[in-house]
């Protein structure tokens, strides 16, 4: 299968790129990836995406973006890209079903994934009380106790969402000050269901076939204690989904793709947008803005290629 523009990833960056590329009549192909809609689709309420006075659900926002791009001709493929070859043109991609997709221009919008705690019990009890998605799993913790780990916007945002269901929520944070925005801090401090466990890290998640507690160490005093809980939601940041591109594109020391302010990577015709390059802002709106830039750059790139090809053809047919 060949497309002029292939977009890997279907979060706000990928879907906005799809909208702009579709409106440029390029019929882009979006390969949805592991998390259709991207991380925003797993977010409960988005209150800071302009244009939605009362906020909008993350899933609904992503779904709207997808439909909007489809209206102008964007196409979607439910697949995961397993290999890419950027050394030849067209660029070559192999999906998890073994299908080969080629592209004249490629927009990488593979985003970032939740960082794991990396402690005993985390993997074993995944989906048995350990969850990285409050929106998806909050309902299962109705009337129960949960622990959220982290002190950023995600920890507080998702923690506040969980208080709709749970009876008690403890936020375990490794420092005694939060990184989250003041408005979320105010809401969390005034929520009667939330208490904080400061200067502490989770060392182990306990339970046989479901979570029953966490072992926590206080970094100031060294004291170890057990918190009884039915669920654990780690929200300790993200790691970029760039393993596909190792050795082919330049990555920074944290694994983010290096692209210029016009979303261009070192390989002409390959653009990168959203959380896969951005470790500072990581907002749906900034990702969408970058997706727009990447699609416009891809459109210009393809026009230049076509222009150059036409000139070559003219030269070849001009008598000497
Ligand atoms: P983040 O801002 O990087 O915060 C990660 C939190 O986890 C920090 O408090 C950090 O502690 C802690 N942490 C990191 N590694 C840890 C470890 N190994 N063990 C224990 N704790 C650890 O990540 P985020 O909250 O996922 O947010 C990511 C981006 O999305 C941010 O730019 C954020 O503003 C944005 N976001 C915005 C909203 C919103 O606007 N409503 C909602 C969600 C996310 P330290 O503080 O000590 O570093």
How would you sum up this structure, described in words?
Strand 6 (81-85) and strand 7 form a beta hairpin. It is elongated and about 85 Å long. The mean pLDDT is 95. 26% of the residues lie in helices and 25% in strands. The chain is α/β, with parallel strands linked by helices and 320 residues long. Strands 1, 2, 5, 6, 7, 8 and 18 form a seven-stranded mixed sheet that branches. Strands 12-11-10-16 form a four-stranded parallel sheet, covered by helices on one side. The protein has two domains: 2-114 and 238-317, FAD/NAD(P)-binding domain, CATH 3.50.50.60; 134-234, 3-Layer(bba) Sandwich (FAD/NAD(P)-binding domain). The protein contains six helices and 18 strands. Residues 48, 149-155, 157, 174-175, 179, 201, 235-238, 282 line the site of NADP nicotinamide-adenine-dinucleotide phosphate (NAP).
Summed up:
With 320 residues, this protein is α/β, with parallel strands linked by helices.
Query: What is the total domain count?
Result: 2
User: H/E element string?
Assistant: EHEEEHEEEEEHEHEHEEEEEEEH
- The number of distinct helices, counting runs of at least 4 residues, comes to 6
What composes the largest sheet?
7 strands, mixed
Q: Which secondary-structure class do the elements indicate? A: alpha/beta
Strand content: 25-35%
The residue fraction in helices comes out at: 25-40%
Using the 3D structure, state the CATH architecture of the largest domain: 3-Layer(bba) Sandwich
Rough outline: elongated
The count of β-strands is 18
Rg, alpha carbons: 22 Å
Bound small molecules, deduplicated: NADP nicotinamide-adenine-dinucleotide phosphate
CATH structural fold name of the largest domain: FAD/NAD(P)-binding domain
């Amino acid at each position: 299968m060949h497309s002029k523009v292939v977009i890997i990833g279907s979060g706000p960056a990928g879907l906005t790129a799809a909208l702009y590329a579709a409106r440029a009549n390029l019929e882009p192909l979006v390969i949805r990836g592991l998390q259709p809609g991207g991380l925003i689709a797993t977010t409960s309420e988005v209150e800071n995406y302009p244009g939605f006075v009362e906020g909008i659900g993350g899933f609904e926002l992503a779904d709207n973006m997808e439909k909007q791009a489809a209206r102008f001709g964007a196409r979607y493929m439910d697949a995961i890209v397993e290999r890419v070859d950027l050394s030849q043109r067209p660029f070559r991609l192999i999906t998890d079903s073994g299908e080969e997709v080629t592209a004249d221009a490629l927009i990488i919008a593979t985003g970032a994934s939740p960082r794991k705690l990396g402690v005993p019990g985390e993997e074993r009890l995944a989906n048995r009380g350990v969850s990285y998605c409050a929106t998806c799993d909050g309902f299962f913790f109705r009337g129960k106790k949960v622990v959220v780990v982290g002190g950023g916007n995600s920890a507080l945002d998702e923690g506040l969402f969980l208080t709709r269901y749970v009876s008690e929520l403890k936020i375990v944070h490794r420092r005694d000050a939060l990184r989250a925005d003041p408005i979320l801090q105010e809401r969390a401090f005034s929520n009667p269901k939330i208490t904080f466990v400061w200067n502490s890290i989770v060392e182990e998640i306990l339970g046989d076939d479901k979570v029953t507690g966490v072992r926590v160490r206080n970094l100031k005093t060294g004291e170890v204690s057990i918190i009884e809980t039915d669920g654990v939601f780690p929200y300790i940041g993200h790691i970029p989904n760039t393993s596909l591109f190792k050795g082919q594109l330049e990555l920074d020391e944290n694994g983010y793709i290096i692209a210029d302010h016009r979303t261009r990577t070192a390989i002409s015709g390959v653009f990168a947008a959203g959380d896969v390059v951005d470790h500072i802002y990581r907002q749906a709106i900034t990702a969408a803005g970058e997706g727009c830039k990447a699609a416009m750059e891809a459109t210009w790139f393809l026009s230049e290629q076509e222009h150059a090809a036409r000139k070559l053809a003219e030269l070849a047919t001009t008598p000497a």
